[in-house]
Amino acid sequence: MTTPLDGRTALVTGSTSGIGRATADALAARGAHVIVSGRDEARCELMVKALRSAGAAADFVAADLATPAGARSLAERALRVTGRVDVLVNNAGIYSFGPTTSRTETDVDGIYGVNLKAPFFLVQALVPHMVERGSGAVVNVLTGAAHRGSAAAGLYGSSKAALLLLTKAWAAEFGPSGVRVNAVSPGMIRTEGTAGGAGLEPIAATIPARRLGDPHEVAAAVAFLASDEAAYVHGAILPVDGGATAA
Ligand SMILES: NC(=O)c1ccc[n+]([C@@H]2O[C@H](COP(=O)([O-])OP(=O)(O)OC[C@H]3O[C@@H](n4cnc5c(N)ncnc54)[C@H](OP(=O)(O)O)[C@@H]3O)[C@@H](O)[C@H]2O)c1
């Protein structure tokens, strides 16, 4: 049976943990050759081992996306793995919260560097190759905090709100050349990254789904947007948040 992503190479940033790891699993299960990435080589290696032992094609390229040079280097090395990147999932992200008066220049540079500038420079380096082939898909991972103001999440939310606008701008820029750009907007998802965050359950109990989300539920939405099943979907922002932004 031909699977929807057979023959395609997918780079998933931040795929050693949480939503990114579940996304790497989902894309591999659909036939993609997955390039795993994160800063920690040992975690990358473990993830690749797990994918290969499930019968998938996988490699890793470790990278620190805190600087544009790190993003460019990841793009260059990822292109060498199979000679192409057909699907780019901009998932790596850092989140920390606090009032504006408490945030330092290091916080601003760190959050904007990983959440916004890295996707920008990865798209700049990888999408021209997709354009040359006339096909490709980019999926950005946003957040509910990109859609509304909240007192402690201005810095994090604004980094993702800029990525939200870029999703639409890139859809306009690259869609005519056959490259689709879309985004998922997760709500409260149980991951390693949110494990320490107390108090998510009581909030989740008030949303329509009445629970936290699972990373695989976000991954399924990413896999849909990355596949030809979403061939007429351009510039969409798909909430995967148990209804949190709707109600
Ligand atoms: N979990 C949620 O409730 C939630 C909700 C809305 C949106 N999101 C978004 O979903 C994405 C994933 O969240 P998550 O909860 O799954 O995160 P997570 O469990 O903390 O995992 C983050 C991933 O990003 C990588 N990463 C972090 N800093 C990096 C850097 N400087 N360079 C390269 N890779 C880096 C990490 O690997 P290394 O540490 O090895 O580098 C890891 O693989 C993020 O963009 C987040 O903003 C999450």
Automatic annotation (TrEMBL):
Keywords: Oxidoreductase. InterPro entries: NAD(P)-bd_dom_sf, SDR_fam. One of its GO terms (molecular function) is oxidoreductase activity. Pfam families: adh_short_C2. Belongs to the short-chain dehydrogenases/reductases (SDR) family. PANTHER family: OXIDOREDUCTASE, SHORT-CHAIN DEHYDROGENASE/REDUCTASE FAMILY (AFU_ORTHOLOGUE AFUA_5G02870), SHORT-CHAIN DEHYDROGENASE_REDUCTASE FAMILY PROTEIN. This is Short-subunit dehydrogenase. It comes from Pseudonocardia cypriaca.
